[in-house]
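FAQ: What does a multi-protein file look like?

Like this. Sequence, then tokens, then the next protein.
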Amino acid sequence: MVAQLRALEDARRDGNIELPDGLRLAVTNLAKPFWPALKLTKGDLFRYYATVAPYVLPAVQDRPLVMKRFPNGVDGKAFYQQRSRVEKPPEGVRIETIDDDIDPIGEPDAQRLIGGSLITLLYMTQIAAISQDPWFSRVQSPLDADYVALDLDPGDGTSFSRVMDVARFIRDELASLKVPAVPKTSGSSGLHIYIPLPPGTSYESGQLFCQIVATVIASRHPRIATVERTVRARPKGTVYVDYLQNILGKTLATAYSARASDFAGVSTPLAWDELDGPLDPRDFTIRTAPERFREKGDLWARLRTTKPANLEAVFRKYVRSGA
């Protein structure tokens, strides 16, 4: 696929690529600049996803996807798209309808793209959705969150080293609770920390857990961590510990996702000990990340294979401690 994409871009042609399963996808405008300052094209994004698909696809398997589309690259106007607008998408692209009383989109019979297939991943690239943003639940059980996340978002002028400090505080707090967690870069300036949940956990329970952890961290380390929602009210130099992404229909870019950041970043899974040394998220880009993934393997698989958090035990511990 990479060779097919390269040949079409070099020839400045639109065309069809053949996927390993025999399906075909029409691709267009491969030479269009998507990151003009970096001289990276739509074709570069295609080749990135074709290369790392074995890592991305398990992370989005069976999950409804929210799209942020950049038809004219990262410097152009972008827009969000929740549902499929194509009556007959390419063969193999998975579309499902979620019950109206569940889907927060607020439209009857809203059809959503569902992740997990190579052609769906590449079709989203064709329509200029740079990142892969899945729900925290699967289409088979949309009200049950498989994991929750804490989004560490640095304020203006806040260094990434301070983000790492907050991540280590969270790591230590979760370790004291015997709660497993997996960190990754956001692909921009922050970090995400994900916690696997037991089957059947509601979004509300998961968000409550994250709210407690975030509030504890902010109260213990007020000079560098905050849960203040209003940007202007956040103390200068702090990291916002955002627990509000854990709501049905809200999303974060998944692990291995490309991002529309100015450095063409990739949301990159980390080992916890990497946060104890020097780390620069700008080192992980669509150019450089595939080699790291080949060397490190699928660090994100831990989110799917680790024994999930026991939230009942955690809530009891916090109640006893008065947190």
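And here is the next protein:
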Amino acid sequence: MRSHALKKKAFLATAAAAGITMVFPVLCAASENDIQTYTNTDFAMDTVVSETLYTTGDDINSKLTSVLTDVETNLLSWTNESSQIYKVNADSGKDKEISDELSGYLERLLKIAKDSDGAFDPTIGKLIRLWDIGGENQKIPEEAEIKNVLKDSGYQKVSLDGTTIRMDEGCSLDLGAAGKGIGCDVVSDFLKTQEDVSGMILNLGGSSVMAYGEKPDGSDWKVAVTDPRDVEGDYLGAITLEGGEFLSTSGDYEKYFMEDGKRYHHILDPKTGYPVWNGLDSVTVVCDSGLLADGLSTACFVLGMDDALELLEKYNAEAVFVDEDKNVYLTSGMKDRFELMKNTYTVKELQ
């Protein structure tokens, strides 16, 4: 078995290699209103974090990284004993009180799960850990092992009553498929309390990007999307974002290993227990919520392009689909904001 490991280089290379998208670097002088530009590269939520902040106040990038770390440590982590998700998993089968914040996130995620007919499912924690793709013990599990953990998954096994959660015994939550999007939402909410901040671009590992406010010169926020089969080379294209929009990409190349010429990647089908093989290489979703963008990109990848369109319409989200034949398909609202940069791909109309 040959494992694929993503290299960590200097930031610009890292953002492309570690995830799916990266933000074009911005050079901007202070405006007449004394708006300053502060950039920062750090590590949080188990990924490289890139921040470019426009403000008339102090540099708060380090504070924003701390906000992300707090979300991971105290809310979302399934390994940290102080995390709410860890405690919910440990007490599966019992009623458990959780915060308003986590209850709100779970309510929205369970709705995506229902609306996608389980294509997105936050209860496949045991399945994810069984495969451990990208981890130290990644492997192709035995079919019996997969069936054994699947019996403990299913979003229907989780119920919410206000801030009381009940989960069937043996079920295990893993919010990794939406965690970075939640992180973007938390940062966005924090920035709304900072009157000095006029704009920011936040990039979590390349797979989740948030645009907030505007640049001093009024130019567009542009995010480059990596060619899913050339993750350390040229970009596939660029997407224009507006302030208040979030972007998330799910692809079969972030974490994977090859065996017998087959790609075993980290996006698992909750119904079969195996990686999704449906002809798609990546799906990029843009909408007005980080949580939704993240959850929907996973759901759309699992569903496949045809079945994903109805889900996207329901959530007023736009998407870019890239298939294994090097075709790029755009939803109607994406046509005027996507620019193809790779001549080995062809943009085609959605039928």
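Q: Is there any per-entry metadata?
A: Some entries carry free-text notes. For the entry above: The mean pLDDT is 91.
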